[in-house]
Input
Amino acid sequence: MLAHALASEVKLDVVETTHRGHAAEIGAAARPEGIDLVVAHGGDGTVNEVVNGMLPAADGDHAPGDNVPMLAVVPGGSANVFARALGYPPDPVEATHVLLEALALGRRRRIGLGTADARWFTFSAGMGWDADVVSGVDRIRGKEAGPGLYTRVAVRSYFWPAHSRPELTLTIDDEEPVVVRSAFISNADPWSYFGPRPIRLIPGCSFERGIGVFAPRSLDVISVLGYLRRALSASGCKPGRRLVQRDDVLSVSVTSEKPVNLQVDGDLVGEKTSVEFRSVTDALTVVV
Output
């Protein structure tokens, strides 16, 4: 039904993914073929694969150029954070109507992206607790990945961390390094959603500015409950004595003596001891 609606307005080729990494292959093929627009119908992991396929390998803070296809998203996952942050409704039928209207009116938006070493991310990346949660959910993928599942895995990962929660050394731009317990890197506000409610870790973050950082110095129960309460409020989290919180930064370096999990856009990358996160402005054109 969605393809039929889109095909009424544009010349459309529909390709279904069949294996992990296939969306990246499709995105990579679109660039040399001169495709104008790639519409990703799926969750945030599918969108991330498409973006990493369409764009050249992440290289410092240089924009990818103008010959990259435009991107649109029809939500099809559990959270659909990137699509919702752009302004698409979470319902795929409603999102298709918004997309058709945007195509008819020529609405488009140029946004920045983030990189984690050589991997692009659209809205978030992280090392530590959030990546442990992604790892836990990834191991039980047979179940529907809704808010309930993420909450249970988050609680389990908090009390029984996979890596005993080693200290992380965080360096923002050229500032002095600081020691934190986890590092959340964001390219947009909100950072994620709990059902219909936005989770606003870094309220000042946006697609048009540099990346943001939310890095707790402490993960004791009282601090965590305070972060959660403020993140679910309308105004979002504010900086505090036990929290490193910044927006609009160019680069963030995170190192650890022991390997910790890394996630990008809710997709587990693996264990790392050092990752360089960077902001790349004017990286991609989206239709919305």
Summary: Residues 2-113 form a domain with the Rossmann fold fold (CATH 3.40.50.10330). The chain has eight helices and 14 strands.
